[in-house]
């Protein structure tokens, strides 16, 4: 399969995890990898050119070292150093890519969210799928989890997740989460059984329709269907904690709000349960 994977590289330790993940995937799918690092912070101050030049030289050495480290994988690896806003430059670099891979310094529950909002803004603005790799050993997770809601974007997420599951020989865990209508406290302490049963049944139908065509395209793929009641991001995070990857879709919101994600995607990226892919 042709195509190029862009990897955002920084001096943070998690960048190595992101590079390794991308190179492994590229080797399996016969793709090329480009390592991109962005030198930011320039404001045009007097004497800044010398500082900027030194930063660019050091950054190129960093990329060259990473490229040399993974040379045995047999994957074509190129490097690029950019200057400017890291979010904008990475989004531009990945405009024609099949995938953008970045790392996050989030290390799990109790450590707080990852620093800043760059990862969330990159995932929201990129045209291609974005994979975010957390900075921790994920162990031997099982399955590719995908969140399903019956939308067109959800279909794109399902296709991406199914291809990953088939590539890895993992089960596809398709999850549809339904949430009862919110009511003020004490307005309805007990929901009618008929209402709950119909909500469950509707969610099961949506899930069944969403995965109906996968078996013909991926005959060896094992599909696990789960329909749960609760808050979507919390349920997905709980299931994905033991998985190799979780995939969610995000809706495009136009130029004026291009750096906004849906709440589910944003909540998952803020507290990464595992490697997380955001698909538009």
UniProtKB/TrEMBL annotation:
Q: Name the keywords, alphabetized.
A: ATP-binding, Nucleotide-binding
**Source domain of life:** Bacteria
Q: Which residues form the UspA domain?
A: 1-134, 144-280
Q: InterPro entries given for it?
A: Rossmann-like_a/b/a_fold, Universal_stress_UspA, UspA
Q: Name one Pfam family in it.
A: Usp
Please tell me whether the keyword ATP-binding is annotated for this protein. yes
- The answer on whether this UniProt entry bears the keyword Nucleotide-binding reads yes
Gene3D superfamilies from the xrefs?
Answer: 3.40.50.12370, HUPs
Family membership, please give it.
Answer: Belongs to the universal stress protein A family.
The protein's name is Universal stress protein
Q: Which organism is it from?
A: Microbacterium gawkjiense
């Amino acid at each position: 399969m042709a195509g190029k994977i862009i990897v955002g590289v920084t001096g943070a330790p998690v960048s190595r995890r992101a590079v390794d993940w991308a190179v492994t995937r590229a080797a399996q799918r016969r793709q090329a990898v480009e390592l991109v690092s962005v030198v930011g912070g320039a404001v045009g101050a007097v004497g800044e050119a010398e500082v900027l030049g030194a930063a660019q030289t050091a950054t190129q050495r960093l990329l060259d070292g990473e490229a040399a480290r993974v040379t045995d994988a047999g994957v074509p690896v190129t490097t690029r150093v950019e200057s400017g806003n890291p979010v904008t430059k990475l989004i531009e670099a990945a405009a024609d890519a099949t995938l953008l891979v970045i790392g996050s310094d989030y290390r799990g529950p109790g450590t707080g969210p990852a620093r800043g909002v760059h990862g969330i803004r990159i995932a929201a603005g990129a045209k291609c799928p974005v994979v975010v790799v957390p900075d921790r050993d994920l162990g031997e997770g099982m399955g590719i989890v995908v969140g399903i809601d019956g939308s067109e974007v959800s279909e794109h997420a399902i296709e991406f997740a199914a291809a990953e599951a088939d590539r890895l020989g993992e089960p596809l865990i398709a999850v549809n989460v339904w949430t009862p209508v919110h009511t003020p406290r004490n307005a309805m302490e007990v929901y009618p059984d008929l209402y709950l049963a119909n909500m469950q049944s509707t969610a099961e139908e949506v899930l069944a329709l969403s995965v109906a065509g996968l078996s013909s395209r991926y005959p060896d793929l094992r599909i696990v269907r789960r329909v749960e009641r609760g808050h979507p991001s919390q349920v997905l995070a709980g299931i994905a904690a033991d998985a190799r990857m979780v995939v969610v879709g995000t809706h495009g919101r136009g130029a004026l709000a291009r750096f906004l994600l849906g709440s589910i995607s944003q909540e998952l990226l803020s507290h990464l349960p595992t490697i997380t892919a955001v698909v538009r």
